[in-house]
UniProtKB/TrEMBL annotation:
Keywords: ATP-binding, Glycolysis, Kinase, Nucleotide-binding, Transferase
Pathway(s) where this gene product acts: Carbohydrate degradation; glycolysis; pyruvate from D-glyceraldehyde 3-phosphate: step 2/5
InterPro entries: Phosphoglycerate_kinase, Phosphoglycerate_kinase_N, Phosphoglycerate_kinase_sf
Record Gene3D superfamilies: Phosphoglycerate kinase, N-terminal domain
Name this protein carries in UniProt: Phosphoglycerate kinase
Natural source organism: Rubellimicrobium thermophilum DSM 16684
């Protein structure tokens, strides 16, 4: 008899009616094809009574675990209260697996534990891509900020053959090398870390690929006139919003020579046309190579998945992860036992 734990949004330890899990009951019942009981708390007398009243075949959904501050604090007493409700703990929430919260970490120490089928599938895909990959291995890492992916980048330079950096992250690397990037988004305080990653890549024999040309505009607006410039020469009144066509060709050439691809983060401001062009083109190329059997491709991250779905090629990739944070954290931790 399964008892389901989940969180929704960020109520910060308080009861927020609009974040109640009660609202997902219809969709859950439709997915399971049966009625689902609901308890308006996840611990305490009501949750305990609901669990005790279950009969064979019943499914019980408990209220948002984040309505209690003990959840995100990974509080052992809160975990103990959760543990009273069941006999075995199964974690199938890969999208939250990188967070050390009570329902994802502390609870696993209080009950016999196992990974769910989705969790096992995700870990197997990451292992194929980075644990025991076919080489050459290429990683594409994009997104807006280097600060959110510093550990990931440092880890990848030691285990992939080619590391392609795009998005706003690339601007920080370009600026650190003295490039003129105009009004582009970047993190000047991380210039030293960017140069250290470049040096680490050189020492490890990793080909770190930065944009050779870029697409720029005066504003991030749909239909805004776009320009193509050398990556080191963005005009002062413009901003870099995508990698350019020559860089797309370079990435395509690298992918054609690769056997494994891991991808986390878009190459440009893909939510706004026409700055989705590079991400779309590379997605199409990776999908083509995957269909031909020459490339194993694993993609993760909400923006990456959204881009692949927009192009209509998500189904062509070898594996598309359900989450972003856990995917990148999994890439960082492949030296650790699963």
């Amino acid at each position: 008899m399964p008892i389901l734990l989940a969180h929704f949004d960020r109520p910060k330890g308080k009861v927020v009616p609009g974040m109640s899990l009660r609202q997902i009951l219809p969709a859950l019942e439709q997915a399971l094809g049966q009625p689902v009981r609901f308890a308006s708390d996840c611990i305490g007398p009501e949750a305990e009574d609901a669990a005790a009243a279950m009969k064979p075949g019943d499914v019980l959904l408990l209220e948002n675990t984040r309505f209690h501050a003990g959840e995100e604090a990974n509080d052992p007493d809160f975990a103990a209260a959760l543990a009273k409700l069941g006999d075995i703990y199964c974690n199938d929430a890969f999208s939250a697996a990188h967070r050390a919260h009570a329902s994802t970490e502390a609870l696993a120490h209080r009950l016999p534990s196992c990974a769910g089928l989705l969790m096992a599938e995700e870990l197997a895909a990451l292992d194929r891509a980075l644990g025991h990959p076919e080489r050459p291995v290429t990683a594409i890492v994009g997104g807006s900020k280097v600060s959110t992916k510093l550990e990931l980048l440092m880890n990848l330079v030691g285990r992939v053959d080619h590391l392609v950096i795009g998005g706003g992250m690339a601007n920080t690397f370009l600026a650190a090398q003295g490039a003129q990037i105009g009004r582009s988004l970047h993190e000047p305080d991380l210039a030293g870390r960017a140069l250290a990653i470049l040096e680490e890549a050189k020492e490890k024999g990793c080909n770190l690929v930065l944009p050779r040309d870029v697409v720029t505009a005066r504003a991030l607006r749909a239909g805004e006139p776009e320009f193509i410039h050398a990556a080191h020469d963005c005009p002062p009144d413009q901003m870099i919003l995508d990698v350019g066509p020559q860089t797309v060709m370079d990435i395509g050439t690298i992918l054609a020579r690769s056997r494994t691809l891991v991808w986390n983060g878009p190459l440009g401001a893909f939510e706004t046309k026409p700055f989705d062009a590079a991400t779309h083109a590379v997605a199409l190329k990776a999908a083509e190579l995957t269909r031909s059997g020459s490339l194993l491709s694993v993609a993760g991250g909400g923006d990456t998945v959204a881009a692949l779905n927009e192009v209509g090629v998500a189904g062509d990739f070898t594996y598309v992860s359900t989450a972003g944070g856990p995917s990148s954290n999994g890439w960082k931790a492949r030296n650790s036992p699963v």
